[in-house]
């Protein structure tokens, strides 16, 4: 009887150790995922701030008019604020925060243009038309026109807002 008891105690101890090991692994994975998510949020925030800083610089240089930095203003205006490389990095961070959102957009709306996709992704971050325009280096009017054309293309109700539309995508 004592041998059976010892075997049972060893088996229970091994089961407890196994369960503790599983809990530790899951805990570490959860912490890693949470940290990765937080880093992605910080990267997106930094990205938006960098673009806004570039936009403020352009606006300041425009105010200066025909100063010696005029050629710098022309160069800055010709620079694409949201480059393809920036967009790729941005999408990676966005996907970390909103997994499968971009894939869901492509799946539900396969005929979206790059411009329309960017609009919907930036709108998901609750950015205003002005902020979206700054990020893309276009006017806020261009953002509104893209939204109205997209509503027409997708045959959406006239009164649906961009924020509501992106919020309803699941």
The shape, in one word, is: elongated
Number of helices: 8
Distance between the termini: 60 Å
Report helical residue fraction: over 70%
Structural class based on helices, strands and sheet pairing: mainly alpha
Largest sheet: none
Computed Rg? 25 Å
Q: Spell out the helices and strands N to C.
A: HHHHHHHH
| Strand element count | 0
Fraction in beta strands: under 5%
Oligomeric grouping of the chains? single chain
Poorly predicted ranges:
none
Question: Mean pLDDT, as a whole number?
Answer: 80
Number of domains: 1
Overview of the molecule:
The chain has helices at residues 2-64, 70-78, 84-97, 101-108, 114-124, 129-136, 140-153, 162-168. Helix 1 (2-64) packs across helix 2, helix 5 crosses helix 8 and helix 6 (129-136) crosses helix 7 (140-153). The chain has one domain (33-168). The chain is elongated and about 95 Å long. The protein contains eight helices and no strands. The mean pLDDT is 80. With 170 residues, it is an all-alpha fold. The termini are far apart.
Please specify the SSE layout and strand pairing:
Blueprint: H1 2-64, H2 70-78, H3 84-97, H4 101-108, H5 114-124, H6 129-136, H7 140-153, H8 162-168
Helix pairs in contact: 1-2, 1-3, 5-8, 6-7
Features:
mainly alpha; elongated; 170 residues
What's this entry about, in short?
The chain has one domain. The protein has 8 helices and no strands. Helix 1 packs antiparallel against helix 3.
């Amino acid at each position: 009887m004592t041998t059976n008891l010892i075997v049972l105690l060893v088996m229970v101890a091994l089961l407890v150790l196994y369960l503790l090991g599983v809990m530790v692994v899951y805990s570490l994975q959860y912490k890693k995922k949470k940290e990765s998510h937080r880093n992605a949020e910080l990267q997106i925030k930094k990205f938006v701030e960098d673009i806004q800083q570039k936009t403020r610089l352009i606006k300041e240089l425009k105010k200066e008019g025909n100063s010696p930095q005029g050629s710098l203003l022309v160069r800055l205006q010709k620079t694409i604020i949201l480059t393809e490389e920036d967009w790729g990095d941005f999408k990676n961070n966005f996907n970390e925060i909103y997994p499968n959102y971009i894939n869901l957009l492509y799946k539900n709306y396969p005929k979206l243009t790059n411009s329309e996709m960017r609009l919907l992704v930036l709108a998901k971050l609750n950015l205003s038309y002005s902020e979206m325009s700054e990020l893309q280096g276009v006017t806020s009017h261009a953002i509104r026109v893209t939204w109205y054309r997209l509503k027409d293309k997708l045959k959406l109700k006239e009164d649906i807002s961009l924020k509501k539309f992106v919020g309803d995508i699941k």
